[in-house]
Amino acid sequence: MNLKKTLIISAAAVGAALFLYGCGGNDAASSASGESDTISVGTTAGYSEDVVEFVAKQAEKQGLHVKVVSFGDYVTPDQALAQGDIDVNSFQHGPFLDAFNQKNGTDLVSIGNTYLAPLRVYSKKHKSLAELPNGASIAVPNDPSNEGRALLLLSKQGLITLKNGTDPTKATTADIATNPKNIKIVELEAPQLPRALDDCDASVINGGYAVSAKLDPKTAIATEDDTSPYINIIATRAKDKDNPTYKKFVKIFQSPETKKYIEDNYADTLVPAF
């Protein structure tokens, strides 16, 4: 998920969406001390948005109106949340949120788990990691938490090793200890990773962007295992973590109906974590 270009493109669309949303008022955000019948939820294109849309329909049956605000990158949903433009968001995992808070001095917190979206390695040129030649190029996400996540996946596959004591959730290329095949790590914005398949030997792609690019998870040449700490979450501002409306949304998200929807529609992509 080039960053400046992505933000410029997404900012226009997001700005318009938030302007229209703002014209209608932000009742939930402005009444954090009490329960409201409206909540605004930020998300990103792909399965994240689709699942939130399903939850929104379920919430409507319980008298809670969900305004879904879709963003075009992984940065603006947290910016909008921190600024109070939306009430909660659902698109990221815990380590990504921690990295955003550390970089921006914000105080966003998780109020509920959603699912694990395994990171996968795809290739148009090779049928397995074993086929990768010396000097092969592998594209990885360039944001701090997902780059570490990609490097951890590559290390578990035996392509590289990380220095002793490295926190895998914060690993960078500087933490690579050994690289027997002299793999070239190409750091890119996450939305560019599917397109990198035309130029690189392989690409480590986040689930949402893999779905948007219509990549079949069954064709991946490596997949993150279920011991991953990268479970996706619902986030809000720390001061609003006990908001009853937000808690109601989390409860509806973590319902048997939502779990069944995920399992029926994303069996090869997502693993419910509630």
TrEMBL record:
User: Where, per UniProt, does this protein localize?
Assistant: Membrane
Could you list the residue ranges forming a coiled coil in this record?
none
> What is the protein's membrane topology class?
Lipid-anchor
Q: Give the range the annotation lists for the signal sequence.
A: 1-28
GO cellular component, alphabetical, reads:
membrane
Which family would the database say this protein is a member of?
A: Belongs to the nlpA lipoprotein family.
The name under which this protein is listed is: Lipoprotein
